[in-house]
Amino acid sequence: MMKRILLVMVMVLLVSSVVSAQPPPQGYFGLFFDVNRVNWCYNGVGTTTFYFFAIPNSDGLKCVELMTPLPAGFFMFGEVFHPDVLSPVMGSLPAGLAACFGNCYYEWVQVLSGTLMIPNMDPAEIMIDAFPLSPYPKILDCLDPAHELEAISWTSIYTNYVVCPGYSSTESTWGAIKNMYE
């Protein structure tokens, strides 16, 4: 029995590594509190570093357009862009950002990092939203930079939640989890 379980686990790891190496059919944006893209929750007041990442579809990523409206009292500052981001960069993340790379990217790329000022212990969410006058957050692909693709928000960032959204606080069965996605 243990051998079967071990064999199944190894097969799942192999399949997931092959699948994760392929770009998704849709581009995604994500906000995180770490460079490994696993933490999107922060508890506390004051300043902390945040990271904005993008992953394109199979046509690559040349430019991004989005904004992240901030809750009252919050501030983002000190944005540091990926070294390949071209000048000029239009705007800023909270007000609306348009930035292009010198090269094409076909996997997760850190577009920028910055500092987030959290004013109080109230729970808050900072979401990825559409660039001003745009219907959705966008990726412009490498095949045709005029081709605008909707980028789906992979993660928002959350501050001062008792239970971080996206993390389970109750036990469940694998069948119950699978049923949520059917």
Summed up:
The chain has 182 residues and is mostly beta strands.
Structure in words:
- By secondary structure, this protein is mainly beta.
- It has one domain (24-162): Sandwich (Immunoglobulin-like).
- The chain contains 2 helices and 12 strands, in the order αββββββββββββα.
- The chain has helices at residues 2-20, 174-180, and strands spanning 27-32, 41-42, 46-55, 61-66, 75-81, 90-92, 96-105, 109-118, 124-126, 138-140, 148-155, 157-159.
- A 9-stranded mixed beta sheet has the order 5-8-3-1-11-10-4-7-6, with no helix packed on it. A 3-stranded mixed beta sheet has the order 2-12-9, with no helix packed on it.
- The relative contact order is 0.23.
- Residues 1-20 have low confidence and may be disordered.
Annotation, overall tally of beta strands: 12
Kindly state the percentage of residues in helix: 10-25%
Tell me the number of helical segments per DSSP (H or I, 4 or more residues long).
2
Low-confidence stretches: 1-20
Main sheet, how many strands, which sense, barrel?
Answer: 9 strands, mixed
Question: Reading side by side through the largest sheet, how are the strands ordered?
Answer: 5-8-3-1-11-10-4-7-6
| Coarse morphology | globular
Taken together, the total number of domains comes to 1
Distance between the termini: 29 Å
Structural class: mainly beta
Order of helices and strands: HEEEEEEEEEEEEH
The average pLDDT is: 84
Give the second-level CATH assignment, the architecture: Sandwich
CATH C-level class is Mainly Beta
Task: Briefly note the CATH topology name.
Answer: Immunoglobulin-like
Calculate Rg over CA atoms. 18 Å
